[in-house]
Amino acid sequence: MRILVDENVPLAEEFFSELGEVTRQPGREMTAESLRGHDALVVRSITPVNAALLEQADRLRFVGTCTIGTDHIDLPLLGERGISFASAPGSNADSVVDYVLSSLLLLAEEDGFSLAGKTIGIVGAGNVGGRLAARLDNLDVDCLICDPPRAEAEGREDFLELDALIDQADILCLHTPLVSEGEHATFHLLDRTRIEALKPGTVLINAGRGDCLDGDALRERLERRGDLRTVLDVWEHEPGIDEALYELVDIGTPHIAGYSVDGKMLGTEMIYQAAMRHFGLPARKKLGQLKPDPWLRKIVLHSWTPPLDALSLCARACYDVRRDMLAFDRYRRRLGMTAGFDAYRREYPPRREFQTLRVELKKNKGGLRDALEGFGFSVKLGK
Ligand SMILES: NC(=O)C1=CN([C@@H]2O[C@H](COP(=O)(O)OP(=O)(O)OC[C@H]3O[C@@H](n4cnc5c(N)ncnc54)[C@H](O)[C@@H]3O)[C@@H](O)[C@H]2O)C=CC1
Ligand SMILES: O=C(O)C(=O)[C@H](O)COP(=O)(O)O
Protein backbone atom coordinates (compact mmCIF):
# COMPACT_ATOMS: atom_id res chain seq x y z
CA MET A 1 0.00 0.00 0.00
CA ARG A 2 1.23 3.54 -0.70
CA ILE A 3 0.37 6.56 1.44
CA LEU A 4 1.04 10.17 0.49
CA VAL A 5 1.48 12.44 3.53
CA ASP A 6 1.93 16.21 3.96
CA GLU A 7 5.46 17.02 5.14
CA ASN A 8 4.04 18.96 8.12
CA VAL A 9 2.37 15.87 9.63
CA PRO A 10 4.48 14.75 12.61
CA LEU A 11 5.15 11.05 13.26
CA ALA A 12 3.87 10.03 9.81
CA GLU A 13 6.49 7.33 9.31
CA GLU A 14 6.05 6.02 12.87
CA PHE A 15 2.30 5.60 12.39
CA PHE A 16 1.56 5.08 8.71
CA SER A 17 4.43 2.71 7.84
CA GLU A 18 2.21 0.09 9.55
CA LEU A 19 0.05 0.43 6.43
CA GLY A 20 2.74 0.58 3.77
CA GLU A 21 5.19 2.88 2.02
CA VAL A 22 5.00 6.53 3.15
CA THR A 23 5.85 9.34 0.69
CA ARG A 24 6.13 12.93 1.93
CA GLN A 25 5.30 16.09 0.01
CA PRO A 26 4.72 19.75 0.95
CA GLY A 27 0.95 20.18 1.22
CA ARG A 28 0.81 23.16 -1.14
CA GLU A 29 2.72 21.26 -3.83
CA MET A 30 0.44 18.23 -4.08
CA THR A 31 -0.93 17.84 -7.61
CA ALA A 32 -3.10 15.34 -9.47
CA GLU A 33 0.07 13.51 -10.52
CA SER A 34 1.24 13.18 -6.93
CA LEU A 35 -1.77 10.98 -6.17
CA ARG A 36 -1.23 8.39 -8.91
CA GLY A 37 -0.69 4.95 -7.44
CA HIS A 38 -1.49 6.04 -3.87
CA ASP A 39 -4.05 4.18 -1.76
CA ALA A 40 -4.31 6.78 0.99
CA LEU A 41 -3.80 10.53 1.30
CA VAL A 42 -3.07 12.29 4.59
CA VAL A 43 -3.20 16.10 4.55
CA ARG A 44 -3.46 19.10 6.83
CA SER A 45 -5.58 22.18 6.04
CA ILE A 46 -3.57 23.66 3.17
CA THR A 47 -4.29 21.04 0.50
CA PRO A 48 -7.59 21.53 -1.31
CA VAL A 49 -8.87 18.00 -1.87
CA ASN A 50 -11.10 18.58 -4.89
CA ALA A 51 -11.85 17.30 -8.40
CA ALA A 52 -8.62 18.75 -9.79
CA LEU A 53 -6.48 17.00 -7.17
CA LEU A 54 -8.29 13.68 -7.58
CA GLU A 55 -8.16 13.68 -11.40
CA GLN A 56 -5.48 10.99 -11.60
CA ALA A 57 -6.20 9.26 -8.29
CA ASP A 58 -6.42 5.73 -9.69
CA ARG A 59 -6.19 3.80 -6.41
CA LEU A 60 -7.24 6.25 -3.70
CA ARG A 61 -9.49 4.67 -1.03
CA PHE A 62 -8.92 6.84 2.02
CA VAL A 63 -8.40 10.56 2.72
CA GLY A 64 -7.58 11.86 6.20
CA THR A 65 -6.98 15.41 7.37
CA CYS A 66 -5.07 15.70 10.67
CA THR A 67 -6.96 18.94 11.37
CA ILE A 68 -10.21 20.04 12.92
CA GLY A 69 -11.33 22.16 9.97
CA THR A 70 -12.62 20.38 6.85
CA ASP A 71 -13.37 23.39 4.62
CA HIS A 72 -10.55 22.34 2.25
CA ILE A 73 -12.18 18.99 1.49
CA ASP A 74 -14.86 18.40 -1.15
CA LEU A 75 -16.82 15.94 0.98
CA PRO A 76 -19.66 15.27 -1.54
CA LEU A 77 -17.03 14.42 -4.17
CA LEU A 78 -15.33 11.89 -1.86
CA GLY A 79 -18.77 10.39 -1.19
CA GLU A 80 -19.51 10.10 -4.93
CA ARG A 81 -16.16 8.46 -5.54
CA GLY A 82 -16.62 6.03 -2.64
CA ILE A 83 -13.48 7.33 -0.91
CA SER A 84 -13.55 7.04 2.86
CA PHE A 85 -12.81 10.22 4.86
CA ALA A 86 -11.74 11.15 8.39
CA SER A 87 -10.83 14.36 10.18
CA ALA A 88 -9.45 14.99 13.68
CA PRO A 89 -12.16 16.84 15.65
CA GLY A 90 -10.94 18.38 18.87
CA SER A 91 -7.33 17.32 18.28
CA ASN A 92 -5.74 20.75 18.73
CA ALA A 93 -8.65 22.54 20.40
CA ASP A 94 -6.82 22.91 23.74
CA SER A 95 -3.82 24.40 21.95
CA VAL A 96 -6.04 27.04 20.35
CA VAL A 97 -7.48 27.86 23.76
CA ASP A 98 -3.93 28.20 25.18
CA TYR A 99 -3.16 30.61 22.33
CA VAL A 100 -6.25 32.73 23.07
CA LEU A 101 -5.53 32.81 26.81
CA SER A 102 -1.89 33.74 26.25
CA SER A 103 -2.97 36.56 23.93
CA LEU A 104 -5.50 37.86 26.45
CA LEU A 105 -2.95 37.80 29.26
CA LEU A 106 -0.49 39.72 27.10
CA LEU A 107 -3.01 42.43 26.15
CA ALA A 108 -4.20 42.66 29.76
CA GLU A 109 -0.63 43.22 30.87
CA GLU A 110 0.09 45.79 28.15
CA ASP A 111 -3.12 47.75 28.74
CA GLY A 112 -3.24 47.30 32.51
CA PHE A 113 -6.64 45.63 32.64
CA SER A 114 -7.73 42.49 34.44
CA LEU A 115 -9.66 39.66 32.81
CA ALA A 116 -11.79 39.51 35.93
CA GLY A 117 -14.87 41.61 35.36
CA LYS A 118 -14.62 41.51 31.55
CA THR A 119 -17.38 40.27 29.29
CA ILE A 120 -16.16 37.85 26.64
CA GLY A 121 -18.27 36.96 23.61
CA ILE A 122 -17.56 33.55 22.09
CA VAL A 123 -18.82 32.97 18.56
CA GLY A 124 -18.90 29.24 17.85
CA ALA A 125 -19.05 27.16 21.02
CA GLY A 126 -17.80 23.80 19.80
CA ASN A 127 -14.62 22.14 21.01
CA VAL A 128 -12.57 25.35 20.96
CA GLY A 129 -15.16 27.93 22.01
CA GLY A 130 -16.74 25.56 24.55
CA ARG A 131 -13.39 24.76 26.17
CA LEU A 132 -12.46 28.45 26.22
CA ALA A 133 -15.67 29.22 28.14
CA ALA A 134 -15.01 26.33 30.54
CA ARG A 135 -11.42 27.44 31.21
CA LEU A 136 -12.52 30.98 32.03
CA ASP A 137 -15.23 29.69 34.32
CA ASN A 138 -13.29 30.05 37.57
CA LEU A 139 -12.28 33.63 36.87
CA ASP A 140 -14.80 36.36 37.30
CA VAL A 141 -15.38 36.59 33.52
CA ASP A 142 -18.84 36.87 32.02
CA CYS A 143 -19.13 34.57 28.95
CA LEU A 144 -21.75 35.27 26.30
CA ILE A 145 -22.21 32.58 23.68
CA CYS A 146 -23.41 32.80 20.08
CA ASP A 147 -23.87 29.47 18.33
CA PRO A 148 -27.10 29.35 16.32
CA PRO A 149 -26.72 25.72 15.12
CA ARG A 150 -26.32 24.55 18.72
CA ALA A 151 -29.01 26.93 19.98
CA GLU A 152 -31.46 25.37 17.50
CA ALA A 153 -30.43 21.76 18.03
CA GLU A 154 -30.31 21.98 21.83
CA GLY A 155 -33.01 24.63 22.43
CA ARG A 156 -30.49 26.84 24.24
CA GLU A 157 -32.27 30.03 25.19
CA ASP A 158 -29.21 31.34 27.01
CA PHE A 159 -27.29 31.66 23.72
CA LEU A 160 -27.41 35.09 22.06
CA GLU A 161 -27.41 36.59 18.58
CA LEU A 162 -24.06 37.75 17.22
CA ASP A 163 -25.20 41.39 17.22
CA ALA A 164 -25.95 41.18 20.94
CA LEU A 165 -22.38 39.97 21.55
CA ILE A 166 -21.04 42.84 19.47
CA ASP A 167 -23.07 45.25 21.62
CA GLN A 168 -22.10 43.79 24.97
CA ALA A 169 -18.70 42.10 24.78
CA ASP A 170 -15.36 43.66 25.74
CA ILE A 171 -13.62 40.74 24.06
CA LEU A 172 -14.99 38.96 20.97
CA CYS A 173 -13.52 35.58 19.96
CA LEU A 174 -14.34 33.91 16.64
CA HIS A 175 -14.16 30.12 16.68
CA THR A 176 -16.44 29.19 13.82
CA PRO A 177 -15.71 26.77 10.99
CA LEU A 178 -15.70 28.20 7.47
CA VAL A 179 -19.10 27.41 5.93
CA SER A 180 -19.77 29.01 2.56
CA GLU A 181 -23.48 28.36 2.08
CA GLY A 182 -26.68 27.77 3.97
CA GLU A 183 -28.59 29.23 6.87
CA HIS A 184 -25.55 29.34 9.14
CA ALA A 185 -22.91 30.34 6.59
CA THR A 186 -19.86 31.92 8.20
CA PHE A 187 -18.12 33.50 5.20
CA HIS A 188 -17.60 37.14 6.29
CA LEU A 189 -19.74 36.50 9.35
CA LEU A 190 -17.99 39.56 10.71
CA ASP A 191 -18.75 41.78 7.73
CA ARG A 192 -18.18 45.52 7.28
CA THR A 193 -21.36 46.50 9.15
CA ARG A 194 -20.49 44.34 12.15
CA ILE A 195 -16.86 45.44 12.17
CA GLU A 196 -18.00 49.08 12.18
CA ALA A 197 -20.39 48.26 15.05
CA LEU A 198 -17.64 46.97 17.38
CA LYS A 199 -17.33 49.22 20.43
CA PRO A 200 -14.12 51.25 20.65
CA GLY A 201 -11.63 49.32 22.75
CA THR A 202 -13.05 45.89 21.87
CA VAL A 203 -10.48 43.09 21.79
CA LEU A 204 -11.16 41.08 18.62
CA ILE A 205 -9.63 37.62 18.23
CA ASN A 206 -9.94 35.39 15.16
CA ALA A 207 -8.46 31.92 15.54
CA GLY A 208 -11.14 30.17 13.44
CA ARG A 209 -10.78 30.74 9.70
CA GLY A 210 -9.58 33.91 7.94
CA ASP A 211 -12.57 34.09 5.60
CA CYS A 212 -14.99 34.37 8.55
CA LEU A 213 -13.98 38.04 8.84
CA ASP A 214 -13.85 40.77 6.17
CA GLY A 215 -10.15 41.67 6.31
CA ASP A 216 -10.48 44.77 4.10
CA ALA A 217 -13.16 46.19 6.37
CA LEU A 218 -11.07 45.50 9.46
CA ARG A 219 -7.99 47.10 7.90
CA GLU A 220 -10.00 50.19 6.95
CA ARG A 221 -11.42 50.55 10.44
CA LEU A 222 -7.98 50.18 12.01
CA GLU A 223 -6.49 52.72 9.55
CA ARG A 224 -9.28 55.21 10.15
CA ARG A 225 -9.94 54.81 13.84
CA GLY A 226 -7.26 52.56 15.34
CA ASP A 227 -9.58 51.93 18.27
CA LEU A 228 -9.65 48.13 18.52
CA ARG A 229 -7.18 45.62 19.96
CA THR A 230 -6.78 42.80 17.46
CA VAL A 231 -5.37 39.29 17.48
CA LEU A 232 -5.33 37.45 14.15
CA ASP A 233 -3.98 33.93 13.73
CA VAL A 234 -5.97 33.25 10.55
CA TRP A 235 -6.22 35.44 7.47
CA GLU A 236 -7.83 35.69 4.10
CA HIS A 237 -5.58 34.46 1.27
CA GLU A 238 -3.01 32.62 3.41
CA PRO A 239 -0.05 32.51 2.98
CA GLY A 240 -0.06 35.70 0.87
CA ILE A 241 -1.83 37.75 3.50
CA ASP A 242 -2.56 41.48 3.54
CA GLU A 243 0.67 43.07 4.85
CA ALA A 244 -1.07 46.36 5.62
CA LEU A 245 -3.54 44.58 7.90
CA TYR A 246 -0.71 42.59 9.48
CA GLU A 247 1.10 45.85 10.33
CA LEU A 248 -2.01 47.16 12.09
CA VAL A 249 -2.91 44.22 14.31
CA ASP A 250 -1.59 43.90 17.86
CA ILE A 251 -0.83 40.18 17.68
CA GLY A 252 -0.38 38.62 14.23
CA THR A 253 0.64 34.98 13.81
CA PRO A 254 0.73 32.60 10.80
CA HIS A 255 -2.09 30.13 11.59
CA ILE A 256 -0.26 28.40 14.42
CA ALA A 257 -2.80 28.63 17.23
CA GLY A 258 -3.23 24.85 17.17
CA TYR A 259 0.43 24.05 16.56
CA SER A 260 1.47 22.43 19.83
CA VAL A 261 3.34 19.13 19.76
CA ASP A 262 0.34 17.66 21.59
CA GLY A 263 -2.33 18.97 19.20
CA LYS A 264 -0.49 18.10 15.99
CA MET A 265 0.53 14.62 17.13
CA LEU A 266 -2.97 13.81 18.37
CA GLY A 267 -4.27 14.78 14.92
CA THR A 268 -1.88 12.27 13.33
CA GLU A 269 -2.87 9.51 15.76
CA MET A 270 -6.58 10.08 15.13
CA ILE A 271 -6.09 9.75 11.37
CA TYR A 272 -3.88 6.69 11.81
CA GLN A 273 -6.65 5.04 13.84
CA ALA A 274 -9.27 5.94 11.24
CA ALA A 275 -7.09 4.62 8.39
CA MET A 276 -6.43 1.34 10.19
CA ARG A 277 -10.17 0.97 10.83
CA HIS A 278 -10.88 1.68 7.19
CA PHE A 279 -8.39 -0.92 5.95
CA GLY A 280 -9.54 -3.44 8.57
CA LEU A 281 -6.20 -3.60 10.38
CA PRO A 282 -5.42 -3.44 14.13
CA ALA A 283 -4.10 -0.04 15.32
CA ARG A 284 -1.14 -1.14 17.43
CA LYS A 285 0.77 2.11 17.68
CA LYS A 286 -0.10 4.51 20.51
CA LEU A 287 0.77 8.19 20.73
CA GLY A 288 1.82 7.72 24.37
CA GLN A 289 4.77 5.57 23.19
CA LEU A 290 5.96 8.19 20.72
CA LYS A 291 5.29 11.63 22.20
CA PRO A 292 8.33 13.35 23.75
CA ASP A 293 8.24 14.30 27.43
CA PRO A 294 7.62 17.98 28.09
CA TRP A 295 10.85 19.82 28.91
CA LEU A 296 9.12 21.85 31.61
CA ARG A 297 7.24 19.43 33.81
CA LYS A 298 6.65 21.27 37.04
CA ILE A 299 6.44 24.69 38.65
CA VAL A 300 6.39 24.99 42.43
CA LEU A 301 4.66 28.00 43.97
CA HIS A 302 6.12 28.25 47.45
CA SER A 303 4.01 31.06 48.77
CA TRP A 304 0.51 32.21 47.96
CA THR A 305 0.22 34.23 44.76
CA PRO A 306 -2.90 36.08 43.54
CA PRO A 307 -4.62 33.74 41.05
CA LEU A 308 -4.27 36.02 38.01
CA ASP A 309 -0.54 36.49 38.68
CA ALA A 310 -0.08 32.75 39.08
CA LEU A 311 -1.94 32.07 35.84
CA SER A 312 0.13 34.61 34.01
CA LEU A 313 3.39 33.19 35.35
CA CYS A 314 2.54 29.57 34.51
CA ALA A 315 1.04 30.39 31.12
CA ARG A 316 4.10 32.38 30.17
CA ALA A 317 6.45 29.59 31.23
CA CYS A 318 4.54 27.05 29.18
CA TYR A 319 3.53 29.02 26.08
CA ASP A 320 3.88 32.72 25.43
CA VAL A 321 2.34 34.05 22.21
CA ARG A 322 5.09 36.72 22.09
CA ARG A 323 7.48 34.01 20.96
CA ASP A 324 5.39 33.42 17.83
CA MET A 325 4.69 37.10 17.12
CA LEU A 326 8.33 38.05 17.24
CA ALA A 327 9.65 35.00 15.40
CA PHE A 328 7.07 35.32 12.61
CA ASP A 329 7.99 38.97 12.20
CA ARG A 330 11.66 37.99 11.77
CA TYR A 331 10.75 35.31 9.20
CA ARG A 332 8.60 37.75 7.23
CA ARG A 333 11.31 40.41 7.16
CA ARG A 334 13.92 37.88 6.08
CA LEU A 335 11.91 35.89 3.51
CA GLY A 336 8.94 38.07 2.58
CA MET A 337 5.38 37.48 3.77
CA THR A 338 4.33 34.47 1.67
CA ALA A 339 7.52 32.43 2.12
CA GLY A 340 7.96 33.58 5.73
CA PHE A 341 4.40 32.51 6.63
CA ASP A 342 4.97 28.92 5.52
CA ALA A 343 8.62 28.72 6.62
CA TYR A 344 7.73 29.57 10.22
CA ARG A 345 4.98 26.97 10.24
CA ARG A 346 7.35 24.35 8.76
CA GLU A 347 10.11 25.12 11.26
CA TYR A 348 7.76 25.77 14.17
CA PRO A 349 9.62 25.40 17.48
CA PRO A 350 8.23 22.85 19.91
CA ARG A 351 5.44 24.02 22.15
CA ARG A 352 3.46 22.10 24.77
CA GLU A 353 -0.11 22.50 25.98
CA PHE A 354 -0.84 24.03 29.40
CA GLN A 355 -2.19 20.65 30.54
CA THR A 356 1.33 19.15 30.32
CA LEU A 357 2.56 21.48 33.09
CA ARG A 358 2.08 20.43 36.70
CA VAL A 359 1.81 23.25 39.22
CA GLU A 360 2.66 22.30 42.77
CA LEU A 361 1.11 24.57 45.39
CA LYS A 362 2.53 24.87 48.87
CA LYS A 363 -0.36 27.15 49.86
CA ASN A 364 -3.87 27.10 48.45
CA LYS A 365 -6.33 29.82 49.29
CA GLY A 366 -8.54 32.35 47.55
CA GLY A 367 -9.45 29.96 44.75
CA LEU A 368 -5.85 29.56 43.51
CA ARG A 369 -6.12 25.83 42.90
CA ASP A 370 -9.47 26.13 41.12
CA ALA A 371 -8.22 28.98 38.95
CA LEU A 372 -5.08 27.08 37.89
CA GLU A 373 -6.94 23.83 37.25
CA GLY A 374 -9.71 25.65 35.47
CA PHE A 375 -7.18 27.39 33.25
CA GLY A 376 -5.87 24.01 32.13
CA PHE A 377 -2.86 23.26 34.35
CA SER A 378 -2.61 20.08 36.36
CA VAL A 379 -2.33 21.00 40.05
CA LYS A 380 -0.86 19.14 43.01
CA LEU A 381 -1.06 20.34 46.60
CA GLY A 382 2.34 20.08 48.28
CA LYS A 383 2.94 19.44 51.97
N1 LIG B 1 -6.20 28.74 14.15
C1 LIG B 1 -6.01 27.44 14.17
O1 LIG B 1 -4.86 26.98 14.18
C2 LIG B 1 -7.17 26.52 14.23
C3 LIG B 1 -8.40 26.87 13.73
N2 LIG B 1 -9.45 26.00 13.82
C4 LIG B 1 -10.75 26.43 13.27
O2 LIG B 1 -11.66 26.59 14.35
C5 LIG B 1 -12.91 26.04 13.97
C6 LIG B 1 -13.67 25.63 15.21
O3 LIG B 1 -13.03 24.52 15.82
P1 LIG B 1 -13.84 23.59 16.85
O4 LIG B 1 -14.42 24.40 17.92
O5 LIG B 1 -12.93 22.50 17.22
O6 LIG B 1 -14.98 23.06 15.90
P2 LIG B 1 -16.39 22.46 16.32
O7 LIG B 1 -16.96 21.87 15.10
O8 LIG B 1 -16.24 21.63 17.54
O9 LIG B 1 -17.23 23.76 16.72
C7 LIG B 1 -17.65 24.75 15.84
C8 LIG B 1 -18.87 25.41 16.42
O10 LIG B 1 -19.22 26.53 15.60
C9 LIG B 1 -20.62 26.57 15.55
N3 LIG B 1 -21.10 27.35 14.40
C10 LIG B 1 -21.27 26.94 13.12
N4 LIG B 1 -21.77 27.96 12.37
C11 LIG B 1 -21.91 29.03 13.20
C12 LIG B 1 -22.35 30.36 13.01
N5 LIG B 1 -22.81 30.79 11.84
N6 LIG B 1 -22.32 31.19 14.07
C13 LIG B 1 -21.88 30.78 15.29
N7 LIG B 1 -21.48 29.50 15.52
C14 LIG B 1 -21.47 28.64 14.49
C15 LIG B 1 -21.04 25.11 15.48
O11 LIG B 1 -22.40 24.92 15.82
C16 LIG B 1 -20.08 24.48 16.47
O12 LIG B 1 -20.62 24.42 17.78
C17 LIG B 1 -12.54 24.87 13.04
O13 LIG B 1 -13.58 24.55 12.16
C18 LIG B 1 -11.34 25.40 12.31
O14 LIG B 1 -11.75 26.04 11.13
C19 LIG B 1 -9.33 24.80 14.44
C20 LIG B 1 -8.13 24.41 14.96
C21 LIG B 1 -6.93 25.21 14.84
O1 LIG C 1 -6.98 21.97 12.83
C1 LIG C 1 -7.28 22.95 12.11
O2 LIG C 1 -8.42 23.13 11.66
C2 LIG C 1 -6.25 23.95 11.78
O3 LIG C 1 -6.54 25.06 11.46
C3 LIG C 1 -4.83 23.48 11.86
O4 LIG C 1 -4.34 23.47 13.15
C4 LIG C 1 -3.95 24.29 10.96
O5 LIG C 1 -2.81 23.54 10.68
P1 LIG C 1 -2.27 23.41 9.16
O6 LIG C 1 -3.28 22.64 8.42
O7 LIG C 1 -2.21 24.77 8.63
O8 LIG C 1 -0.98 22.69 9.31
From TrEMBL:
Its EC number is 1.1.1.290. InterPro entries: D-isomer_2-hydroxyacid_DH (IPR050223), D-isomer_DH_NAD-bd (IPR006140), Erythronate-4-P_DHase (IPR020921), Erythronate-4-P_DHase_dimer (IPR024531), NAD(P)-bd_dom_sf (IPR036291), PdxB_dimer_sf (IPR038251). SUPFAM superfamilies: Formate/glycerate dehydrogenase catalytic domain-like, NAD(P)-binding Rossmann-fold domains. Keywords: Cytoplasm, NAD, Oxidoreductase, Pyridoxine biosynthesis. NCBIfam families: PRK00257.1. Catalyzes the oxidation of erythronate-4-phosphate to 3-hydroxy-2-oxo-4-phosphonooxybutanoate. This is Erythronate-4-phosphate dehydrogenase. It comes from Salinicola rhizosphaerae.
